[in-house]
């Protein structure tokens, strides 16, 4: 490639060392915070409020950006309860982030984590509903039902992930399109089933019967639902997946099959089977995220699940699709979630503006990594070819 | 309360005098509207706003705090959530209380926001209002965990195995009764050659439509009542219904309604929160009519007043006001289930502001008759689609 912009810039971006990339990410974060603060301050001049946050040059500013970030930080880490909320969100984002990262490693863009999570969550909630009555309501029951619920969610999510994998491998249907569409299928089917057949018919909400006390993961921090078990499980999963892809033959096969199927075939690897394998693994992780949501957060399946699966895409991109990088990325997103709940609660700043702020941080921080991936995909840089670090 | 202050409905006045847009008083409140609507209503119904409300709490150093958790459609829906917001604003004005809003992005956030309010000790919330059926399960759990906290819920009853929770006041509505009324209106209008405001009827075909938010029993109750009202007029009238699957998706609402108008529907009634704005949009561009829901939408969505023939009102604002007032007077009605319909003026019908006195007299007369019949029990309105 030529050394002139923008090619040269992309070359440099693709060739950036890990340290450089971390510096770029942190600089982007700071930049996003500054720009977001300016936007919030400026929009405070057109809003009407009873008590302006401050008055400058005889203009009334309704929102104080410093107060905003203070509240954001306070909401994320300010108290044990807030920390619990942040870590609760982080734990689930670990799984959805890993789900997307696993597929990315094999050059597959799984946008279907949301749907896989929705079905995994439904599978675990229903399994608990069916099995719980025949179990003792004590620790023994917990030890049976929790692993069972996770297992069912893994299988359901894995199968639903395998579907676009099969379509990709054997029918050449692009996984971006199929996974997006399968999200809607999952949500629609789940809604229909719960609304008409397997849900809690005593309420207007489209939801399953709440799971019994002994099936709920015990909260680690009083007053929250955060369970450290899920966080440890998520961290373990991140390390295991890192080792799988970096240290094992299976991981190598999975990667090459997605990135260069012809080369893999030439090397004696069944590329098609490995593509299905990557998508199944990705879907299984999405399914586990769903089970964790039911067991730890919501204690039931309910329609309109939060977009943790979609957030997983941003987490993964931010992490450069590195399974270990998913850990800090998930923490950042978890903190943003915990913080934005607090802003909604404590400040008169409309939640839409907080969303804008969240969007800025995602955009600014993820974009360098995103361009790096595109550049690498398009053959810039000295190594090129892979979409990971 | 002076009636000539308000714009109101000719003809159906008897039924709706208690339902003045913005008149939050209800049975015990102040007749103090906040929508600035005025004019001379010749409605002379069972007006029940008996003067001024209870202005206690004013000037107090430490005003009472109310927490508001809205439904997922969010504020700005010009309908359900905004109606609740209006109620608490009115209470703020009259009772000198303060309130704080929280809007959940998704059902999953509801429980956390409720707990947030309940946990807070500075300020300490005397009452937490939970707007919408979606909050029921979380509220039952939280009300049990925070037994000293007063709560109220709209659109669901908070109860456990032992009956209603005694720290929650529940408000539910018989929406099918009001929907029946607008069904009668729609059924009669589609059979007429009528043209006023921004639309006209299609005389070739007799057909009406319904757009719902999510396909859940609560919204099917609206559809059932509406359908029964249409059939009450003439069982031969064509009926089409569809659900948008979202409370805040005007684009889908517009798409669905445009299809219905193209198929020959004259009037489309929506029970879809913010999605309904799309229905009005479609009515305007197709030159047909629409019926609003929850609040007098010819006012709350005034840019569409030329096509909003009427609205089925659900006085969520009164419920909020009432429970805030009760809490302020230390007479909070925990454990009470308020089941409100036409007879209690919790549900009603309001003719759109551009259509007052412009509807054929036989329609307004028939609406009076059916209203009385429903109250007297002579007409029994189905509350689900299976009973139609």
Question: Summary?
Answer:
Chain A is built from 14 helices and two strands, in the order ααββαααααααααααα. By secondary structure, chain A is mainly alpha-helical. Chain A has two domains: 1-63 and 348-389, no CATH class; 87-331, ABC transporter involved in vitamin B12 uptake, BtuC (Orthogonal Bundle), CATH 1.10.3470.
What descriptors fit this protein?
heterodimer, A: about 400 residues, mainly alpha, ABC transporter involved in vitamin B12 uptake, BtuC, 2 domains, two-stranded antiparallel sheet, 14 helices, 2 strands, globular, disordered C terminus, B: about 400 residues, alpha/beta, Rossmann fold, six-stranded parallel beta sheet, six-stranded mixed beta sheet, about 35% helix, about 20% strand, elongated, disordered N terminus
Your description of this structure?
The complex is a heterodimer of chains A (389) and B (388). Chain A has 14 helices and two strands; from the N terminus they run ααββαααααααααααα. With 389 residues, chain A is mainly α. Chain A folds into two domains: 105 residues, no CATH class; 245 residues, ABC transporter involved in vitamin B12 uptake, BtuC. Chain A has a two-stranded antiparallel sheet with strand order 1-2. In chain A, helix 5 packs antiparallel against helix 6 and helix 9 packs across helix 11. The C terminus of chain A is likely disordered. Chain B is α/β, with parallel strands linked by helices. In chain B, strands 2-1-3-4-7-15 form a six-stranded parallel sheet, sandwiched between helices. Chain B has eleven helices and 16 strands. The N terminus of chain B is likely disordered. In chain B, 34% of the residues lie in helices and 19% in strands. In chain B, helix 2 packs parallel to helix 10. The termini of chain B are far apart. Chain B has two domains: 197 residues, Response regulator (Rossmann fold), CATH 3.40.50; 170 residues, Rossmann fold (3-Layer(aba) Sandwich). Chain B is elongated. Chains A and B meet through helix 13 of A and helix 3 and helix 4 of B.
């Amino acid at each position: 490639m030529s050394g002139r912009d923008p090619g040269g810039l992309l070359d440099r971006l693709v060739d950036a060392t890990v340290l450089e990339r971390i510096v770029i990410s942190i600089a982007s974060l700071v930049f996003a915070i500054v720009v977001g603060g300016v936007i919030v301050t400026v929009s405070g001049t057109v809003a009407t409020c009873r008590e302006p946050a401050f008055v400058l040059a005889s203009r009334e500013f309704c929102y104080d950006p410093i107060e905003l970030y203070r509240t954001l930080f306070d909401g994320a880490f300010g108290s044990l309860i807030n920390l619990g909320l942040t870590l609760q969100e982080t734990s689930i984002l670990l799984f959805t982030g890993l789900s997307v990262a696993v597929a990315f490693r094999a050059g597959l863009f799984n946008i279907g984590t949301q749907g896989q999570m929705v079905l995994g969550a439904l599978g675990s909630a229903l399994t608990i509903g069916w099995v719980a009555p025949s179990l003792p309501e004590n620790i023994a029951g917990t030890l049976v039902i929790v692993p069972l619920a996770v297992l069912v969610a893994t299988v359901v999510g894995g199968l639903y992930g395998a579907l676009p994998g099969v379509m990709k491998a054997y029918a050449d249907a692009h996984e971006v399109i199929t996974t997006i569409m399968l999200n809607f299928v999952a949500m629609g089917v789940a809604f229909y089933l719960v609304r008409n057949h397997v849900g809690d018919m005593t309420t207007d909400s489209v939801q399953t019967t709440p799971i019994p006390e002994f099936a709920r993961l015990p909260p680690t921090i009083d007053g929250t639902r955060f369970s450290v078990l899920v966080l440890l499980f998520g961290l373990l999963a991140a390390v295991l997946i890192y080792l799988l892809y970096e240290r094992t033959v299976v991981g190598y096969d999975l990667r090459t099959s997605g990135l260069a199927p012809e080369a893999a075939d030439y090397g004696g690897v069944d590329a098609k089977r490995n593509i299905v394998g990557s998508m199944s693994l990705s879907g299984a992780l999405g399914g586990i995220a769903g089970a964790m949501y039911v067991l730890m957060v919501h204690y039931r399946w309910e329609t309109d699940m939060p977009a943790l699966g979609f957030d997983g895409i941003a987490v993964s991109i931010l992490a450069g699709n590195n399974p270990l990088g998913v850990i800090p990325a998930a923490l950042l997103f978890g903190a943003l979630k915990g913080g934005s709940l607090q802003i909604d609660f404590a400040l008169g700043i409309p939640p839409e503006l907080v969303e804008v702020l969240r969007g800025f941080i995602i955009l600014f921080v993820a974009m360098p990594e995103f361009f790096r991936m595109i550049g690498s995909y398009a053959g810039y840089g000295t190594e090129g070819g892979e979409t990971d670090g | 309360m002076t009636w000539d202050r308000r714009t109101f409905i000719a003809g159906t006045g008897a039924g709706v005098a208690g339902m003045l847009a913005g008149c939050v008083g209800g049975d015990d409140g102040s007749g103090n509207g906040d929508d600035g609507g005025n004019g001379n209503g010749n409605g002379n119904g069972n007006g029940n706003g008996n003067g001024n409300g209870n202005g206690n709490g004013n000037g107090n150093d430490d005003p009472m705090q109310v927490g508001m958790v809205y439904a997922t459609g969010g504020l700005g829906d010009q309908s359900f959530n905004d109606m609740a917001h209006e109620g608490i604003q009115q209470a703020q004005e009259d009772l000198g209380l303060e309130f704080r809003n929280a809007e959940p992005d998704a059902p999953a956030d509801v429980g956390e926001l409720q707990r947030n309010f309940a946990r807070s000790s500075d300020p300490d919330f005397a009452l937490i209002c939970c707007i919408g059926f979606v909050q029921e399960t979380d509220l039952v759990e939280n009300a049990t965990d925070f037994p000293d906290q007063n709560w109220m819920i709209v659109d669901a009853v908070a109860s456990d195995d032992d009956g209603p929770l005694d720290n929650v006041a529940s408000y539910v509505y018989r929406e099918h009764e009001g929907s029946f009324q607008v069904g009668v209106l729609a059924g009669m209008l589609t059979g007429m050659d009528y043209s006023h405001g921004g639309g006209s009827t299609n005389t070739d075909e007799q057909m009406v439509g319904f757009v719902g938010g999510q396909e859940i029993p609560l919204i099917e109750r609206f559809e059932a009542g509406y359908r029964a009202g249409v059939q009450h007029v003439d069982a031969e009238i064509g009926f089409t219904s569809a659900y948008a699957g979202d409370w805040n998706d005007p684009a889908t609402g517009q798409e669905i309604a445009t299809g219905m108008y193209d198929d020959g529907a004259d009037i489309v009634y929506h029970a879809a929160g913010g999605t309904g704005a799309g229905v009005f949009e479609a009515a305007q561009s197709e030159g047909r009519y629409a019926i609003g829901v929850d609040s007098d939408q010819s006012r709350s969505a005034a840019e569409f007043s030329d096509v909003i023939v009427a609205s089925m009102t659900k006085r969520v604002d009164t419920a909020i006001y009432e429970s805030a007032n009760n809490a302020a007077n230390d007479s909070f009605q925990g454990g009470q289930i308020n089941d409100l319909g036409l007879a209690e003026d919790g549900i009603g019908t309001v003719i759109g502001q551009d259509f007052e006195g412009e509807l054929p007299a036989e329609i307004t007369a028939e609406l009076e008759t059916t209203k009385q019949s429903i109250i007297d029990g002579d007409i029994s309105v189905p509350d689900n689609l299976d009973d139609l």
